[in-house]
Specification:
Length: 748
């Protein structure tokens, strides 16, 4: 399945250069080992496989996952599974000095260091995308022959572990899938003894452990599988053999060369230095420190790179990290907010490639002839496709039907084009899905008493009555029709389908109605209850993530959205607070957005499922707590912070639209805008000082600058560029593809 190209070339060089010596290090660090997987262990991942390390002294645990390892089938939901664990048991006491456990976001490497009896011990952990392996390196810098430990591998479903030479293997079968994982140990110096259930290392100078695994999952296959256990074994063994032939130095170099340019594309500096206290202390006692905001923003980007690169599946409710076989909500793909929120930051945070698994998943399932998603539509005598709320990796969809999710998914397909302007992707991948989704709604919409087209019998997740024409459905179908017409214009499609789409769009109720107490109405029949604190903001889809509601389009609806948000209140579960951050940013209220961001960072230790507004927040490892752990809140917060920095509007790119007073000085580099633009901005005392824009596609650059006066546009290498200052606050100037432009603003 083809996914849009990312504009690299000069952009890659230009924005990777942002990772210079002055860049503030982005690190989580602690002075003791992790005690609880969910709250304190630290994640590494390469997009498809990942692990959590605890950093124990006498005993280390590395719990690992493969994103495709699911129990369940095409007829049973099942659940995402824990693949297994590696246990390192050292011949040392638990007591040590100089202990430090850290995760560097800048290089995606975890480290544990400590001292025992004058000997320094160091471990490094990373998940390599180019080699498709997880690597652990153990050394004793300055000392030889000091590594003594045993290594054992445990299957997540308690299957047998085979030890053959220096390689340990687990394998098994689930409902549809077969799987295998291998771990291979290589020692420098000393001896390695093979036991029936473990490997024992004695007197080694250094040790490298390489871990990898796979299943026979195949999204495109009618059976969702390809190959048998023998084929999986050959594939895993070949991957292991290739990686094991490389030195640790080469494995690490390949990992850094792959990861660092991606992560370094974006920098957010809020004039804060890395504190000298641990991350758990930072979030518990110093939440007002702007470094936490910088770290939390970049952590979302790190987690996206770790859980959504390549492969056939998007990030699930926990990205890909999971230590049990019965996780909350099966760690599935929830279609009523969660999987969508996972991808809110993908484009603006300059990780367009990470969209590929989501786009592949949606486009494959939506167009799968006779597939489960199409069957949902056929049962309603509709063309196209639809889904329920809960979805596994085998097309199975159940619980409450969520028809508007098909439109919501399509907005993501369009967004990827809007940022990349990849016409081939739009034609070959997005358009076929958007077209049949529109046809679903052609068949389903009905005419109401006023002659408007409405979606019958819909709801407002996850509460309220089922009625015709609820805001949630209407706003999403409106966005679908509007964006599909835009796609038709780009592709120069003018046929019977487009004519029908135009006609139905002209009669479609847009879902924007102001109620008796000044709010955006949620339902058509039931009266909205003022003070309803339900965590979903489903009647505000048009505010965010869609864009029908804006002060620049119609102030009445923007004010009504504000009333509705106020009524919902600031309390919420983890991901809901992130959504509210983005919504208040869209209303240009930086102080309210910031307040909610701080609430989203409330520390919690609750690990069981809770809907208590006061239980959500973050754990000390900065995983978002619903609770329990849900990664959508991490991604949503990153998107919300980006929304405070940059917004796409009808009048152009709005820079610093919701800057709070707490971030008076700072800069960002590398945030993307629609049209193939990438922006850098520096501000002082809340006012823009200078900026830079890179144009990938050579489109006309339009900026909306109500609070700043642009005085100069210059080519990065060349002279001045003429620009037009329009009366409505828009600034317009021409660009050339592959060129960057420096912006200078009037000092005030």
């Amino acid at each position: 399945m083809r996914v849009g190209k990312y504009f690299l070339g000069l952009a890659a060089c230009l924005y990777a250069a942002a990772a210079d010596a002055e860049r503030v290090p982005m690190k989580l660090w602690y002075d003791e080992p992790a005690k609880v997987w969910m709250t304190s262990a630290l994640p590494v991942g390469n997009g498809g496989i990942g692990a959590m390390f605890f950093g124990g002294v006498a005993k280390e645990r590395l719990q690992f996952n493969d994103k495709t390892l699911w129990a369940g089938s095409t007829t049973r939901r099942g659940a995402y599974q824990n693949m297994g664990d590696l246990f390192f048991e050292f011949d040392t006491p638990e007591t040590c000095t100089n202990y430090r456990r850290e995760l560097s976001l800048d290089d995606a490497i975890g480290r544990v260091s400590y001292t025992i009896d004058g000997v320094d011990y160091l471990r490094e952990y990373f998940a390599s995308n180019p080699d498709s392996v997880i690597v652990v390196r153990l050394t004793t810098p300055g000392h030889k022959g000091k590594l003594n430990f045993s290594l054992r591998m445990q299957d997540g479903r308690q299957g047998m572990t085979r030890v053959d030479g220096h390689t340990m293997t687990i394998k098994g079968t689930l409902d549809l899938l077969s799987y295998e994982a291998q771990a291979r140990l290589q020692a420098d110096g000393g001896m390695v003894e093979t036991k029936s259930d473990r490997l024992e290392v004695k007197g080694a100078d250094a040790v490298t452990v390489v871990l990898t695994g796979a299943t026979n999952f195949d999204l495109a296959s009618p059976t969702y599988t390809h190959g048998d256990a023998d084929e999986i074994h050959r594939r895993v063994s070949a991957r292991m053999d290739k990686a094991a032939r490389k030195s640790y130095k080469k494995l690490k170099a390949a990992h850094l060369a792959d990861y660092q340019p991606l992560f370094a594309r974006v920098e957010l500096d809020l004039d804060a230095e890395q504190p000298d206290y641990t991350t758990d202390v930072l979030v518990r006692e110093h939440k007002d420190n702007a470094y936490l905001d910088m770290l939390y923003f970049q952590y979302g980007r790190y987690l996206m790179l770790g859980s959504s690169r390549g492969g056939q599946l998007p990030s699930n409710l926990q990205g890909l990290w999971n230590n049990v076989n019965n996780p909350a909500w099966e760690c599935d793909y929830h279609s009523n907010i969660n999987v969508q929120m996972n991808y809110w930051p993908a484009e603006v945070a300059n990780l367009s490639e990470c969209y590929a698994p989501f786009i592949t998943y949606v486009s494959t399932e939506a167009l799968k002839d006779g597939g489960s998603w199409q069957q949902v539509a056929r049962k309603e005598n509709c063309r196209g496709w639809a889904v329920h709320t809960q979805n596994n990796i085998f097309g199975y969809t159940d619980w409450l039907i969520n028809r508007p999710a098909n439109a919501w998914y399509c907005t993501h397909l369009w967004q990827h084009y809007a940022y990349t302007l990849d016409k081939e992707y739009l034609r070959d991948t997005a358009w076929p899905v958007m077209k049949v989704t529109c046809q679903y709604w052609f068949d389903r919409l009905k005419e109401n008493a006023e002659g408007r087209l409405v979606a019958p019998n819909e709801w407002s997740p996850e509460h309220g009555p089922w009625e015709d024409g609820v805001a949630y459905a209407q706003q999403l179908v409106y966005a679908l029709f509007e964006e599909t017409l835009a796609a038709a214009d780009v592709l120069a499609v003018d046929d019977a389908f487009v004519s029908e789409l135009k006609e139905k769009f002209s009669r479609l109720d847009n879902g924007l109605h102001i109620g008796s107490w000044g709010q955006i109405k949620e339902w058509t029949i039931q009266e909205d209850k003022q003070g309803d604190h339900q965590r979903h903001l489903s009647h505000l889809m048009a505010l965010y993530p869609c864009d029908q509601i804006s002060y620049l389009k119609d102030k009445r609806y923007a004010e009504a959205a504000k009333v509705a948000l106020d009524s919902r209140g600031d309390g919420a579960t983890g991901w809901s607070r992130a959504w509210k951050v983005a919504c208040w940013a869209r209303l240009w209220d930086g102080e309210r957005a910031y307040r909610l961001l701080k609430q989203a960072q409330n520390i919690t230790d609750v690990t069981v499922v809770s809907m208590d507004d006061n239980a959500g927040g973050v754990y000390e490892n900065l995983f978002c707590a619903h609770p329990s752990f849900q990664i959508d809140g991490n991604f949503g917060a990153t998107a919300g912070i980006a929304e405070m920095m940059l917004q796409n509007t009808v009048k152009g790119v709005h820079l610093l639209p919701a800057l709070p007073s707490a971030w008076d000085d700072g800069h960002f580099k590398g945030l993307k805008a629609k049209g193939g633009f990438t922006f850098d901005v520096t501000w002082k005392d809340g006012k823009m000082v200078e900026g830079r824009v890179y144009s990938a596609a050579g489109q006309e650059c339009r900026m909306y600058l109500p609070d700043a006066k642009l005085v100069e546009v210059k080519k990065s290498k060349g002279g001045k560029v003429a620009f037009t200052q329009e009366a409505d606050g828009a600034v317009v100037f021409p660009t050339s593809a592959g060129k960057s432009y420096r912006l200078r603003f009037e000092e005030r």
